[in-house]
């Protein structure tokens, strides 16, 4: 019996008092509080992540106060019932439950508030997490509580008597459970003899239990090694330190003081330790991991970490049977290894709704979480049966060490053979202060010849400026092994590096600012190709008829021939029947800086769809006679400042596969008009001026940049992501079949009071090409943008003297635009007079011929 349990009737107490059963209400209250804690914590974590994703999808500013507020609310709502459990009941188990949950809730406030740091500064977050968790662990070890149980010293065998005095060990544990039988005496004598034998003996059992915990942690790490990928070196080291600190915190909260009231030696107490103690420990772990990791990373940990509380309970039983408590080491190792998986092998920015449409990172995180949960359940059952069954005990230390070693080897083999080995950290884009002077470039003769001369001069000046100003910095970065990649369209260098390198670069006099250039981590299997499920059109699509493109073909005999349209997007399926004949061909018409494909391809489908709306044949494209060239600047629906620059730079001066953009560029082969159905938000690393020199250079070269306004409407001033807000970009919004501005279409004005969008075009229910030869209907300003680029191709095909004359082209487009339906009245009506009317291809081409 427990030391604080009244003896049987007649043993110094009146029968009525001795027979009075303990009140069940504290246990019921603890169970209700535990259910409340789990439900609330999981719900608020899911709500916080969902709100952040809504902010990303809607283009709203990130609210830094969100996670501190949610963490504080969780602590208050969880902490009050936990405080009552810690103070009011007489049961030591209920009181220790309340203390543990209260401490974990307070830890959640500190850990969860760290998410106020932006995800783009992930290394700084991991460093803060490591430091905060370590400090909390030190504080937790100094919290007042029950006396720590000392190592158990087995009592000498007692002769069997009718009414023996209970034998206890420090910490209130009664290892005898009543009268000892001769068999029990022999067993205990054998256990006593085991003490001091070394490996495999009683003194070795706690070490064996720790090794079992290490093996369990490695088993939980396996799914993340298989399905995840590491970031950069510094990021990985900091993730390891953060995981270690979280393990220390969990060990401080679930040390021997916590387990003492739950632990026993006989079968009833074994079950209580595993089931009751494990359940309470699981709630503690849930609160700890709710604050561990940036937004999104904590969600899988909420699923697979709490069940290991049962395995930890079984480890405690095994250690107690060996004669002394297990200490905090098993908790530290198991929890630390478990949380290292999501902390190190996932990027929180990639656990995003932006990637949730295909088998991308969110899918594989869900797979790893499910496998991790199954492993945790198997560990709970297996360790419970192995260690907590009647007369069970931990394996010998050699056996446990062998199991841990085999699992460690398995982790390494899985990483190399089936995982994504290597480091995939973010890079930095270093923007230099001096940008090329493009003033005074002569307009030259009208038409293509003049445009080509201007493009060549712009290319020459840009390259000369970059070569003159980047030399010293490139040499220093190369000496440090940071793999610099130079750019000229914006005078910038992309390089490896974390916060320390960023601080060093920011302090250099030639550097204007340093941006984070995102890098997607590889997937365990390629994402499936997005294919269309609709048949080919039987005639011009409704959107082409709305803007009069079909009349341009039939009545004016203009299809866009002689004009080249450049598409920067997820790629283009060059074999699609509607697009294959329009590819310009040659060795300088396709560039893929993401996957380095050598011929036009597209797995995402977005780029094929937009290219089809611009130049596709069979009734889907505005300018079916135009040619196209392509570049991949989006991979899996995300980009980076550097890859956006890769494609814009390629469009100014195309170069052959494997060529050097600085020396092998061919400005005479530049496309005439660029369609860009993308934007670079802060989550990808861009600031408002990141691409400003690039569009200014293309403007100076006479290349028209057409860009999507974005899909963050109907809020006013929602055109924010470069390049859409720039004055030298033709920005396009979307309307529906009723010529009314689409609800999702972003609105202006933009900074400086510039009217945006410049034009609108059909953007709801647009059918166009998809990879594999099919067709699909999509919505967005992405769908509207290529139609305007196609109209420009028709205008320049009808009048080649307009090629490169961007001012007159814009003027014609605006003057011939038709009124569109009203947008959100708070932003003002969208009308032709405001410069944001519905593009009219027929009127624009007729005006271009004059």
Q: How would you write the strand order of the largest sheet?
A: 6-7-5-8-9-10-11
Helix and strand composition category: alpha/beta
Biggest β-sheet, characterized? 7 strands, parallel
The average pLDDT value, as a whole number, equals: 87
Count of alpha and pi helical runs: 25
The percentage of residues in β strands lies in 5-15%
Low-confidence blocks of residues:
1-19, 147-203, 831-835
Q: How many separate structural domains? A: 3
| Gap from first CA to last CA | 103 Å
How would you sum up the global shape?
Answer: elongated
Number of β-strand runs: 13
| Rg (C-alpha, Å) | 34 Å
Helix content: 40-55%
Can you walk me through this structure?
It is a single chain. The chain is an alpha/beta fold and 850 residues long. The protein folds into 3 domains: 24-149 and 197-417, no CATH class; 427-517, no CATH class; 542-849, Rossmann fold (3-Layer(aba) Sandwich), CATH 3.40.50.200. The chain has 25 helices and 13 strands. Helix 19 packs across helix 25. The chain is elongated. The termini are far apart.
What topology does this entry show?
Layout: H1 15-19, H2 25-58, H3 66-87, H4 92-113, H5 122-141, H6 182-194, H7 205-227, H8 233-253, H9 256-259, H10 267-290, H11 298-304, H12 308-321, H13 329-345, H14 361-388, H15 397-417, E1 427-432, H16 448-479, E2 485-487, E3 492-496, H17 499-506, E4 511-517, H18 542-547, H19 549-556, E5 564-569, E6 590-591, H20 606-615, E7 627-632, H21 641-652, E8 673-676, H22 692-700, E9 704-708, E10 730-735, E11 759-762, E12 766-769, E13 775-778, H23 781-798, H24 806-816, H25 841-849
Parallel strand pairs: 5-7, 5-8, 6-7, 8-9, 9-10, 10-11
Antiparallel strand pairs: 1-3, 1-4, 2-3, 12-13
Helix pairs in contact: 2-3, 2-10, 3-4, 4-5, 4-10, 5-8, 7-12, 7-13, 7-14, 7-15, 8-10, 8-13, 10-11, 10-12, 11-14, 12-14, 19-25, 20-23, 23-25, 24-25
């Amino acid at each position: 019996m427990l030391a604080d349990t009244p003896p049987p009737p007649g043993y110094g107490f009146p029968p009525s008092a001795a027979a009075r059963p303990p009140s069940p209400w504290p246990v019921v209250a603890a169970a209700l509080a535990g259910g409340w804690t789990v439900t609330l914590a999981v719900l608020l974590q899911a709500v916080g992540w969902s709100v952040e994703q809504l902010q990303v999808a809607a283009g709203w500013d990130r609210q830094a106060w969100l996670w501190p507020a949610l963490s504080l609310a969780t602590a208050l709502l969880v902490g009050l019932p936990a405080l009552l459990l810690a103070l009011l009941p007489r049961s030591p188990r209920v009181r220790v439950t309340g203390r543990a949950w209260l401490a974990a809730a307070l830890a959640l406030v500190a850990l969860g508030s760290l998410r106020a740091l932006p995800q783009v500064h992930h290394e700084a977050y991991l460093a803060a997490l490591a430091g905060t968790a370590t400090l909390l662990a030190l504080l937790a070890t100094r919290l007042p509580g029950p006396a720590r149980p000392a190592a158990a010293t087995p009592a000498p065998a007692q002769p069997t008597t009718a009414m023996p005095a209970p034998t206890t060990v420090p910490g209130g544990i009664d290892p005898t459970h009543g009268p000892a039988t001769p068999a029990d005496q022999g067993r205990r004598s054998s256990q006593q003899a085991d003490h001091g034998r070394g490996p495999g003996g009683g003194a070795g059992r706690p070490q064996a239990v720790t090794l079992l915990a290490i093996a369990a942690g490695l088993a939980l790490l396996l799914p993340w090694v298989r399905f995840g990928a590491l970031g950069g070196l510094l990021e990985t080291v900091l993730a390891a330190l953060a995981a270690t600190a979280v393990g220390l915190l969990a060990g401080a909260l679930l040390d021997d003081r916590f387990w003492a009231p739950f632990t026993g030696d006989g079968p009833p107490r074994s079950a209580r330790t595993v089931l009751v103690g494990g359940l309470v420990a699981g709630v503690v772990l849930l609160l700890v991991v709710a604050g561990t990791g940036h937004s999104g990373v904590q969600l899988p940990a909420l699923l697979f970490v709490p069940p290991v509380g049962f395995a930890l309970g079984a480890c405690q039983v095994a250690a107690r049977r060996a004669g002394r408590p297990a200490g905090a080491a098993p908790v530290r190792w198991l929890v630390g290894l478990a949380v290292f998986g999501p902390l190190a092998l996932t990027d929180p920015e990639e656990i995003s709704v932006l990637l949730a449409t295909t088998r991308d990172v969110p899918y594989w995180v869900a797979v790893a979480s499910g496998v991790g949960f199954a492993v945790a359940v198997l560990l709970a059952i297996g360790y419970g049966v192995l260690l907590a069954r009647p007369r069970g005990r931990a394996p010998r230390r050699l056996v446990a060490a062998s199991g841990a070693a085999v699992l460690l080897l398995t982790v390494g083999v899985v990483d190399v053979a089936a995982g994504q080995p290597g480091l995939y950290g973010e890079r930095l884009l270093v923007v230099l202060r001096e940008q090329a002077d493009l003033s005074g470039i002569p307009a030259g003769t009208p038409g293509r010849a003049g445009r080509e001369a201007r493009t060549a001069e712009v290319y020459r000046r840009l390259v000369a400026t970059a070569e003159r100003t980047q030399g010293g910095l490139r040499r220093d970065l190369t000496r440090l092994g940071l793999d610099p990649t130079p750019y000229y369209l914006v005078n910038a260098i992309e390089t490896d590096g974390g916060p320390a390198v960023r601080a060093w670069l920011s302090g250099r006099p030639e550097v204007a600012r340093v941006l984070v250039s995102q890098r997607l981590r590889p997937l365990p299997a390629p994402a499936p190709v997005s294919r269309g499920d609709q048949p080919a059109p039987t005639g011009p699509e409704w959107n082409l008829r709305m803007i009069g493109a079909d009349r341009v073909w039939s009545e004016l005999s203009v299809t866009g021939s002689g004009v080249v349209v450049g598409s920067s997007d997820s790629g283009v399926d060059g074999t699609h029947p509607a697009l294959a004949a329009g590819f310009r061909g040659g060795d300088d018409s396709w560039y893929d800086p993401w996957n380095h494909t050598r011929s036009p391809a597209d797995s995402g489908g977005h780029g094929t769809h937009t290219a089809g709306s611009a130049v596709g044949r069979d009734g889907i494209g505005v300018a079916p006679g135009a040619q196209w060239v392509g570049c991949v600047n989006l991979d899996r629906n995300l980009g980076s400042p550097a890859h956006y620059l890769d494609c814009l730079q390629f469009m100014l001066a195309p170069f052959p596969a494997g060529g050097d953009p600085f020396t092998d560029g061919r400005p005479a082969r530049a496309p005439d008009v660029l369609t860009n159905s993308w934007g670079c938000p802060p989550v990808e690393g861009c600031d408002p001026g990141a691409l400003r020199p690039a569009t200014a250079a293309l403007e100076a070269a006479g290349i028209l940049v057409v860009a999507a306004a974005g899909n963050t409407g109907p809020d006013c001033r929602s055109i924010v992501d470069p390049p859409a807000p720039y004055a030298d970009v033709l920005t396009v919004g979307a309307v529906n079949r009723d010529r009314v501005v689409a609800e999702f279409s972003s609105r202006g004005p933009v900074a400086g009071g510039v009217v945006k969008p410049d034009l609108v075009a059909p953007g709801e229910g647009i059918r166009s090409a998809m990879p594999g030869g099919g067709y699909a209907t999509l919505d967005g300003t992405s769908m509207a943008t290529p139609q305007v680029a196609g109209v420009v191709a028709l205008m320049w095909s009808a009048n080649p003297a307009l090629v490169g004359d961007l001012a007159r082209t814009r003027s014609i487009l605006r003057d011939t635009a038709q009124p569109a339906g009203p947008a959100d009245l708070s932003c003002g009506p969208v009308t032709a007079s405001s410069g944001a009317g519905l593009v009219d291809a027929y009127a624009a081409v007729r005006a271009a011929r004059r």
